[in-house]
C-alpha cells in the first residue's frame, strides 16, 4: 500500500511537469502594410487573390495570399522601394503601388510613406477644363447624332 501511495504521489508531482508544454512568446515590432479591398458598392472583396511584388523583382510575386472576410490583407515589406500589390477576384481587381523608404540613421526598420489616397467619388473638380470641354462636346455630339438618326428614320417613305 505504501508503494502504491508513493507511486501516486510521485506521479502526481512528476506527471504534470512531464505533460506540460512550455510556451515561448516573443515579438518584434514591425511596420505592417494592411490592404483593404472593396468593390465600388462597399462590399469587401472576401477571398480575393493577392500578389505582392518586391521593388527589385517586379515580375515574380514575393508573396501571395487571399484577403479575409473583410477584404483585408497585410504584409511586412523588408526593403525600401516601390512595392506593387495586385488584388483580383472573378475578373475584378486593381493594382496598388506603395512607396516604402528607409527611416535613415542606419536603422533597418522601414518607414512607410503613405501613398495619396484615391478619392472614392468622382467629381468634375478632378478634371482639367480641357477634359471637361471634350466630355461636354462628346455628349453633345452623341445627342446630335441620335437626333439626326431619329429624324432621318421619320423622313423615310415606305413604298
Number of strands: 7
Strand content: 25-35%
CA radius of gyration: 31 Å
Largest sheet: 5 strands, antiparallel
Q: Looking at the structure, what is the overall shape?
A: elongated
Main sheet: which strands, in order across?
3-2-5-6-7
Helicity level: 25-40%
Subunit organisation of the chains? single chain
What's the helix count? 2
Order of helices and strands: HEEEEEEEH
The mean pLDDT is 79
Structural class, from helix and strand content?
alpha+beta
Q: List segments where confidence is low: pLDDT < 50 over at least 5 consecutive residues.
A: 105-116
Measured between the Cα atoms of the first and last residue, the distance is: 122 Å
Features:
five-stranded antiparallel sheet; 159 residues; alpha+beta; two-stranded antiparallel sheet; 28% helix; 30% strand
Question: Would you mind describing this structure in some detail?
Answer:
With 159 residues, this protein is an alpha+beta fold. It contains two helices and seven strands, in the order αβββββββα. It has helices at 2-19, 129-155; strands at residues 33-36, 49-54, 57-66, 72-75, 81-89, 92-102, 110-112. It has a five-stranded antiparallel sheet with strand order 3-2-5-6-7, with no helix packed on it. A two-stranded antiparallel sheet has the order 1-4.
Amino acid at each position: 500500500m505504501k508503494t502504491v501511495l508513493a507511486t501516486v504521489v510521485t506521479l502526481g508531482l512528476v506527471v504534470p511537469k512531464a505533460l506540460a508544454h512550455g510556451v515561448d512568446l516573443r515579438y518584434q515590432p514591425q511596420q505592417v502594410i494592411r490592404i483593404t479591398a472593396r468593390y465600388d458598392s462597399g462590399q469587401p472583396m472576401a477571398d480575393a487573390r493577392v500578389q505582392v511584388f518586391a521593388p527589385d523583382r517586379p515580375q515574380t510575386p514575393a508573396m501571395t495570399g487571399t484577403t479575409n472576410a473583410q477584404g483585408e490583407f497585410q504584409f511586412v515589406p523588408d526593403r525600401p522601394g516601390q512595392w506593387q500589390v495586385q488584388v483580383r477576384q472573378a475578373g475584378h481587381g486593381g493594382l496598388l503601388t506603395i512607396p516604402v523608404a528607409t527611416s535613415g540613421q542606419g536603422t533597418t526598420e522601414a518607414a512607410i510613406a503613405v501613398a495619396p489616397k484615391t478619392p472614392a467619388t468622382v467629381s468634375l473638380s478632378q478634371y482639367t477644363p480641357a477634359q471637361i470641354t471634350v466630355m461636354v462636346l462628346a455628349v453633345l455630339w452623341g445627342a446630335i447624332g441620335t437626333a439626326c438618326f431619329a429624324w432621318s428614320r421619320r423622313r423615310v417613305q415606305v413604298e
